[in-house]
Amino acid sequence: MSTPFYVSPQQAMADRAEYARKGIARGRSLVVLQFADGIVFVGENPSRALHKFSEIYDRIGFAAAGKYNEYENLRIGGVRYADLRGYTYDRDDVTARGLANVYAQTLGTIFSSAAEKPYEVELVVAEVGAGPEGDQIYRLPHDGSIVDEHGSVAVGGNAEQISSFLDQRHRDGMSLAEALKLAVQALSREANGNEREIPAERLEVAVLDRTRPQQRKFKRIVGRQLTRLLDADGAGATPTDAPSDSETEDAGSPGTETPGTVTPDSDADGSAKE
Amino acid sequence: MDFLSEQSPSMLPGNRSLPPLQGAIQAPHGTTIVAASFPGGVVLAGDRRATMGNMIAQRDIEKVFPADEYSAVGIAGTAGLAVEMVKLFQLELEHFEKVEGATLSLEGKANRLSTMIRSNLAMAMQGLAVVPLFAGYDIDRGKGRIFSYDVTGGRSEEHGYAATGSGSIFARGSMKKLFREDLTEEQTLTLVVQALYDAADDDSATGGPDVARRIYPIVTVITDEGFRKLDDTESSEIARSILERRLEQPDGPRAALL
User: Fold this and answer.
1) What band does B14 get if pLDDT is binned at 50, 70 and 90?
2) With pLDDT > 90 as the criterion, what percentage of chain B qualifies?
3) Cα(A236)–Cα(A179) distance, rounded to whole angstroms?
4) What is the per-residue pLDDT across B16-36, written as a single tens digit (0 to 9) for each?
């Protein structure tokens, strides 16, 4: 009769955490930043179809780094939770705090259950409020803890370095173009201190924009609108970029709109284009 | 919906057990919904009255709802059930869009609504029928389309114009004489309000424009720019201009005899 090896609980948990951390570190990092009109999600993603960011509910967005199948599973769970809750009670009763709690429970259970391998994912759940003080950003590491973040947060491979970079430079009330530029700067710093260029086609950008007239505040920024925002020079000087500008706007005139200009097109392209 | 039926079946309209029938159930009923298409879009409108037997239950009920960005649904029949059905329908379209990352096709949406009406058949047999009208802009084909339903969930696409509810006979007759293929958006808006006026004229359960209380029909239009509901001023303007003409000609515009 063989006796199983004794592994101390500390050792077992440390091993599992190590395993999950390594898995997450293999993925590319992404950042979530507050800006004047909401929250912006920026990440490097070579794929057009497999998204790192997505809409959960009216004011709630989701970002994930790590293994695709695992976070996709969590994302769909989150959409179901939110939709069911909104249908049972009211749309206002779906909050990021509630959703983050559900995620924390799920991740925590999986992490400490001996039968399953820990999920190699790190999530961010963000909710945009009526004003900047109402914005909420929660980071959920692989072990089921919740971290309430303010201003900026980075998850994924190079997260620590990127978040210290962001912490130093991020300030409240940035315009979208400024926040976006800062995010791209942060993402293009490599672990060894070198910089590399990330072309616009490899960026995935989405915003939760409180100025959007629709109930659903989540919007992906793609194509011309993205290049226009990235090219907006000296963005610090002009608050140029109401993100509700439609992509059909003339690309030749960057930065001529005032915040909050809403063209009829912007109503149409928000939820339909993915 | 499939998820809901597994998790908490009691929340789905079709799965409730019904009490044994004891005479007709009195519940508010919505009445007339009309729709008409024009090149580039479709208009969906409804009157504001809900009736309970011979009593007016509500004067300012809203019976036309956006289903998603490019479609809308107007409801006739038992108001409570219909509103719940619309709520579930909206939820399903949004849920699909978020999970799949793409919107359903217009046909897909129409089929989904058809299934939901069918699941209400048992209720319909007890007099609590829901018969909606579904209209949307088909992005793939670049035109507005209208789908009408019967109480068993049978779906048929209507070309040009359609009506449902107790006043639908009169509204359809009115639109039959006034509708043309080449109407502009504004003309189509006038057309549907004319049809509602005619329906209210001959059907006691349909409400006409209520000038004293400032209650005017709900008029919505869906084009490639998405769903838009006319605000009170726009809708009252149309209703008032029609009313003015009707003061001279109570039966409304006349079509040529030959």
Assistant:
1) low
2) 72
3) 10
4) 665 555 555 677 787 899 999
Tell me whether residues A54 and B98 touch, CB distance under 8 A.
yes
Q: Please check the confidence at residue B68 and state whether its pLDDT lies above 60.
A: yes
Q: For residue range A232-252, what is the model confidence (pLDDT) as tens digits? A: 754 444 444 444 444 433 333
Second CATH level (architecture) for the domain A9-272: 4-Layer Sandwich (3.60)
Q: Using an 8 Å CB-CB cutoff, list chain B residues near A264.
A: 225
pLDDT for A67 beyond 70: yes
Question: What would the mean pLDDT of A53-72 be, rounded to a whole number?
Answer: 93
| Contact status of B18 with chain A (Cβ, < 8 Å) | no
Phi-psi region of B127 (alpha: psi -120 to 50; beta: other; left: phi over 0): left
How far is the alpha carbon of A64 from chain B, nearest alpha carbon, in Å? 15
Sequence ranges of the domains in chain A: 9-272
- How far is B135 from B33, CA to CA, in rounded Å? 11
pLDDT of A30 over the 50 cut: yes
Torsion of CA A57, A61, A62, A63, to 10 degrees: 160
Enumerate residues 6+ apart whose C-beta is below 8 A from A205. Answer: A40, A41, A42, A43, A180, A220, A221, A222, A226
Report the CATH fold assignment for B28-248.
Glutamine Phosphoribosylpyrophosphate, subunit 1, domain 1 (3.60.20)
Nearest to A103 by CA among A147, A158, A67: A147
Main-chain phi, psi angles of A244, to 5 degrees? -80, 0
Query: Residue B18: its pLDDT value, please?
Result: 59
Model pLDDT, residue A70: 92
Prediction ipTM score: 0.80
B225 to A265: CB separation less than 8 angstroms, yes or no: yes
Min Cα–Cα distance to chain A from B153, Å = 23
Contact B103, B35 (CB under 8 A): no
B246/chain A closest Cα distance in angstroms: 35
Residue of B200, A212, B107, B209 whose CA lies nearest to B219? B209
Least CB-CB distance to A274: which of B7, B8, B101?
B101
pLDDT at residue A233, as a whole number: 55
Q: Does B97 touch chain A (CB under 8 A)?
A: yes
Break chain A down into helix, strand, coil percent, rounded to 5: 40, 20, 40
Comparing CA positions, the residue from B178, B184, B180, B189 lying closest to residue B241 is: B189
User: Which residue ranges make up each domain of chain B?
Assistant: 28-248
- B52 lies within 8 A of chain A by CB: no
| pLDDT at A117 > cutoff 80 | yes
B188 has catalytic annotation: no
